[in-house]
Amino acid sequence: MTDPLTALTLAQARDGLASGDFTSEELTRAHSGAVEAARDLNLFITETPELALERAQASDTRRAKDAAAGPMDGIPIAVKDLFCTEGVLTTAGSHILDGFTPTYESTVTANLRAAGAVMVGKTNLDEFAMGSANVTSYYGPAKNPWSTGDGKDRVPGGSSGGSAAAVAAHLCSASIGTDTGGSIRQPASFSGIVGLKPTYGRCSRWGIVAFASSLDQAGPLTRTVRDAAIMLGAMAGHDAKDSTSAPVEKPDFEAALGGGVRGLKVGIPREYRIDSTPGEIETLWQQGIEWLKDAGAEPVDVALPHTKYALPTYYIVAPAEASSNLARYDGVRFGLRVPGETLDEMYENTRGEGFGAEVRRRVLIGTYVLSAGYYDAYYVKAQKVRTLIARDFKKAFETVDVILTPTAPSAAFAIGEKMDDPIAMYLNDVFTVPASLAGLPAISVPAGLDPQGLPLGLHLIGRPFDEETVLRAAEALETAARFDTKPAYLEGA
Amino acid sequence: MPLDESTVKNIAFLARLKVPDEELERLASELSNIIGWVEQLAEVDTEGVEPMTSVVEMTLPKRPDAVNDGGDRERVLANAPEPMSGYFAVPKVVE
């Protein structure tokens, strides 16, 4: 029997708390109970029910004194286990961070804490956020609450798989994830929820375990577009501790909603039509174009000629940055240490045992493309192509306000599929990676079901720091799609 | 360009990553596939194109060159696998 409080959206929970229909303690207990009851999905690496209760009670005390901190005060959220959280185990889904308990809080989680949000736990993810199916986690695969009745467990997507599935399974009002090449948007699509990657620089990266620093960006995973707007408002903001955090005004994102899309020019990039895409994805995309047109927007064909080079560019840039970032895991300052006779041997043993297969693969690729004699041919070349990809978008945004594409080339696949071929797994991010390389804000909105009844998302990309238009167009899609199917896990509960 | 086993062994050493000899062959083939796939970038004309250095158009901020944090040895060492007398301890490096 699920508690009706867990079915509320973030906005509904906020309004209920404000009008005194229930307390944060009641809301938090309902969600912590749901987290415990859903352990078979393996969505959490660490549950924090006591901490949550403490923070919920503090929230109720603030509210009783008419001193609630804002819309997030008292709201139960889940946090991808890539954000450092003070006094709470932080693993990045890796063996090499065994026992790592930060003595500090990441800026984004600190912002959410200051806003009164209540953390119910740390969610499962691909190891160091490297994956698109949450199958590379040292803590085992997370399971999607969506299934088809064929007896196979589906992946929730990745790398923010636990965060996406926890929102879909009603274990928290909302969650946070990070997106390097699609790690918020693709799992949102696979889990039938909303996932927003803000503009690079909108949210501070300080205290987030780094994967690829020029691409990593934190963002919200929610059940509605409005919830994403509310949550982003509490996460974002300039931070002097991250030199790439942008010193720009933070708008009232929620206020951007409700405006409609009349007259909005929506770019449709022909290069996103790829032969291997299943028919239902193409159909849904056409449907999305119709929906926006019916709402008064104007579809415009745009060209993004370097799209096909985005994935290979990403698979040079991201592993190169990862190999550099992951150099810090040496068995000296934190986490796992595997002894060796010499210092080098200790490093090699620790890293050989501490990193899983996909992380090892990417560290090796990154080391190779950065090594003497290959740096210009691979890394510099990729950064040049990246300039061209960003230029394509810039040109397109001279004529359109937002770009519409599918989020992912398929619905959620079964756990164990696509494991033999790394490149087949990488292709999951074919539609999400280009916006990442260009640092642009982008959102996935649940829009329909595939023939097996699994959710599919549509993807909107906006101009730098124009999350407001992205959210406004997303709301129009959400309104037209009326996506209200619930995952089998909830229906069967 | 395909990677052979000795190249994999060398980059594994550069990355300080222990790779058992029996895994070298499989890794060489996997990495060669990935490198072969990314090499399609060679067909893009990048003559005169600047490599990207910053994805957002902003200048890197500066701050005064002054100490603004520190003196926190306990917290710094809190997660060390083998702290010793207020230091990080490692296997002997100087004979």
Spatial order of the strands in the main sheet of chain A? 1-3-2-4-6-5-10-11-9-7-8
Largest sheet of chain A: 11 strands, mixed
Strand percentage of chain B: under 5%
Low-confidence stretches of chain B: none
By CATH, the architecture of the domain at 4-259 and 411-491 in chain A is named Alpha-Beta Complex
Instruction: Give the topology string of chain A: H per helix, E per strand.
Output: HHEHEHEHEHEEHEHEHHHHEHHEEHH
Distance N to C terminus of chain B: 41 Å
What is the CATH domain class of the domain at 4-259 and 411-491 in chain A?
Alpha Beta
Radius of gyration of chain A: 21 Å
Overall helicity of chain B: 25-40%
Give the helix level of chain A as a range of percent: 25-40%
Give the integer mean of the pLDDT values of chain A: 96
Shape of chain B: flat
Radius of gyration of chain B: 22 Å
Question: Can you tell me the CATH superfamily of the domain at 4-259 and 411-491 in chain A?
Answer: Amidase signature (AS) domain
Number of extended strands of chain B: 2
Spatial strand order of the main sheet of chain B: 1-2
Largest sheet data of chain B: 2 strands, antiparallel
In short:
Chain A is an alpha/beta fold. Helices cover 37% and strands 13% of the residues of chain A. In chain A, a hairpin with a 5-residue loop joins strand 10 and strand 11.
Structural features, described:
The complex is a heterodimer of chains A (493) and B (95). Chain A has a domain at 4-259 and 411-491: Alpha-Beta Complex (Amidase signature (AS) enzymes). Chain A contains 16 helices and eleven strands. The model of chain A has no long low-confidence stretch (mean pLDDT 96). Chain A is an alpha/beta fold. In chain A, helix 7 (225-235) runs antiparallel to helix 15 (467-481). In chain A, helix 8 links the parallel strand 7 and strand 8 (298-302). Chain A has an eleven-stranded mixed sheet with strand order 1-3-2-4-6-5-10-11-9-7-8, sandwiched between helices. Chain B has a two-stranded antiparallel ribbon with strand order 1-2. Chain B is flat, with a radius of gyration of 22 Å. Chain B has helices at residues 5-14, 24-38, 73-77, and strands spanning 83-84, 87-88. In chain B, strand 1 and strand 2 (87-88) form a beta hairpin. Chain B has a domain at 5-38. Chains A and B meet through helix 9, helix 10, helix 11 and helix 12 of A and helix 1 and helix 2 of B.
